[in-house]
Design a protein that fits this description.
By secondary structure, the protein is mainly beta. 0% of the residues lie in helices and 58% in strands. The chain is built from no helices and 11 strands. The strands form 2 sheets. Strands 2, 4, 5, 6, 9, 10 and 11 form a 7-stranded mixed β-sheet that branches. It has a 4-stranded antiparallel β-sheet with strand order 1-3-8-7, with no helix packed on it. The mean pLDDT is 96.
């Protein structure tokens, strides 16, 4: 299973970006999809995830919106009111299983850089 993320870039503070992440491969079922981010010198942190419920990090609540298209196995992250503290590499992930098994697997995307200038 491969994840292809896109949509990162350079934006001024207050601006918006939309990230996309498409999962491909022998996926039978997807449970949770989501986004993490890692800023230089910091640990990777969860930004948002969507499964049976939707959860957001406190730092992005009210500014970011996560959504998914189950027909295309794509997860999106709409980011508004961006500030320099949002600068990081953003990674998407998917929890999935393949046909004939009950085990859930995790797959990660390669990361897409988001840079917010002040």
């Amino acid at each position: 299973v491969q994840l292809q993320a896109s949509g990162g870039g350079l934006v001024q503070a207050g601006g918006s970006l939309r990230l996309s992440c498409a999962a491909s491969g022998p996926i039978y079922e997807i449970n949770t999809m989501g986004w993490y981010r890692q800023a230089p010198g910091k640990k990777r942190e969860s930004v948002a995830n969507i499964g049976d419920n939707i959860e957001y990090a406190d730092s992005v609540k009210g500014r970011f919106t996560i959504s998914r298209d189950n027909t295309k196995n794509v997860v999106y992250l709409e980011m508004n009111s961006l500030n320099p503290e949002d600068t990081a590499v953003y990674f998407c992930y998917v929890q999935y299983r393949v046909y004939g098994t009950r085990r859930w697997y995790d797959a990660w995307g390669q990361g897409t850089q988001v840079t917010v200038s002040s």
